[in-house]
Amino acid sequence: MSTGLISSDTIVALATSPGVNGAIAVIRLSGAEAIHITNRVFKGKNLLEQPSHTIHFGTIRDGDDIIDEVLVSLFVGPNSYTKEHVVEISTHNSAYIIERVIHLLMKQGARAAKPGEFTLRAFLNGGLDLSQAEAVADLIASNSAASHQVAMQQMRGGFSNQLKKLREDLVHFASLIELELDFSEEDVEFANRDQLRLLITNIYQVIRKLIASFEQGNVLKNGVPVVIAGKPNVGKSTLLNALLNEERAIVSEIAGTTRDTIEDEINIHGITFRFIDTAGIRETADIIEAKGVERTREKMRQARLIVYLFDPTQDSVADVQTQIAEVQHLNIPFVTIVNKSDLITVEQRLAFDVLKPLYISAKQQEGIDDLKDELLNQVNLANVNHDDVMVTNIRHVEALQHTQEALEKVLYGLDNPVTSDFLAMDIRQSLHHLGEITGAVTTDDLLENIFSKFCIGK
Ligand code: GDP
């Protein structure tokens, strides 16, 4: 473990987001002097004499000048998020008050916290492992039931616990092999090779499952990328608007929650669907025209799901079949939609039935709920057990992949005449990569890279 990042300063930062219209702001301090520093500017009870996990009403004063009436929450270390003394001061949410209180605390000896420094301390002091610390950032960024659930699960340690168990198994393996090295002249085998192979194979399977969970984990965290495709004028924009408008109506019912980024995202039963390049959706119109094919394909390749729209008043069934064949090459799930069902004749419908499409009218907003069900169906996420351990972080997947490669070498070593010292080396390599995930093995650079992406106050 590196130690260059450990600092004994008492740090302070605004923990709530700045500039938002809310009633209350929370200023957080952490460090050996946190309670002393607060006590020097707080008028009320003597905070030095109060037990942990208590809240106290009083005023923050700069000399005789009352800056605000506040509530002070005390967390006496190590029973706190950072394992140090932590104080949270709830003030009224005024930029002026916040600035003056933080300034005052800094005059008394606190230093402004760097991004992620509270969580970094929680990690360095053993309160969280690295993957849990990263989940804190994901939790704060989560904007759907699914992304919230995976982040929460990871923060509570589901993911780390599984890895800890794997590492213990591997350490056991490594120590037996290394014992053999000590007795190398006597040609003994402490580690039963069959049991070892079984153990490594088991670990290998678990890691493979974790790696495979990334695709789903990533989708739950970041949303399902969807492309709406089809010839010009089949109704792609109309459909997108129908999907989004409904969403906007729901969203704007909750006052103050309307966000610009909702623009091209919809949320179906807690799962986010992101429409790729919706601003340029008209461009995808030229899907089957020679010029546009490559560019449109490129877009479609980014999709995890394609919604392919047809206009029964323009397209013939044979036409549609040709277009479908094109999409099938891409090996991405797609939904066949016949739009403008309000205009369709009985004969046309009979003809199109062979394609087993979903009939909708984007304009009249008919069949939209069926389409939503079908979207959920296609990504096969509705039945995902959110309690399953799921990898959502690219850094973790990479470390798992490196572990997997090292384990493959171990397996090779077990089946071929490879000496114990090489085996031991490959096992150590796997341990190293697994440790990178939880932070058992880490460098200052890696930590700085991870925590600098946090906001200040986290
Ligand atoms: P895009 O080029 O694929 O994006 O197609 P648009 O969404 O711009 O729609 C083309 C035309 O078809 C517009 O005049 C729409 O009003 C019309 N349209 C779209 N969906 C429907 C529908 O379900 N029924 C009917 N009757 N017209 C539709």
Explain this structure:
This protein has 458 residues and is of the alpha/beta class. The chain has three domains: 119 residues, Gyrase A, domain 2, CATH 3.30.1360.120; 124 residues, Four Helix Bundle (Hemerythrin (Met), subunit A), CATH 1.20.120; 159 residues, 3-Layer(aba) Sandwich (Rossmann fold). 47% of the residues lie in helices and 15% in strands. The strands form two sheets. It has a seven-stranded mixed β-sheet. Strands 9-10-8-11-12-13 form a six-stranded mixed β-sheet, sandwiched between helices. Helix 10 links the parallel strand 11 and strand 12. Helix 5 runs antiparallel to helix 7 and helix 6 packs antiparallel against helix 7. About 6% of the residues have low confidence. The structure holds guanosine-5'-diphosphate (GDP). The site of guanosine-5'-diphosphate has 17 residues, from helix 8. Homodimer. Heterotetramer of two MnmE and two MnmG subunits. GO terms for molecular function: GTP binding; GTPase activity; identical protein binding; metal ion binding. Its EC number is 3.6.-.-. Its cofactor is K(+). This is tRNA modification GTPase MnmE.
Describe the SSE topology:
Layout (H helix, E strand, L loop, with lengths): L10 E4 L9 E7 L3 H8 E2 L10 E9 L2 E11 L10 E7 L2 H13 L3 E2 L4 H8 L5 H12 L3 H11 L2 H25 L10 H30 L1 E6 L6 H18 L11 E4 L2 E5 L14 H12 L3 E6 L6 H12 L5 E5 L7 H7 L5 E2 L8 H12 L14 H22 L4 H19 L5 H8 L7
Helix pairs in contact: 4-5, 5-7, 6-7, 6-14, 7-13, 13-14
The structure holds guanosine-5'-diphosphate.
Guanosine-5'-diphosphate binds next to helix 8.
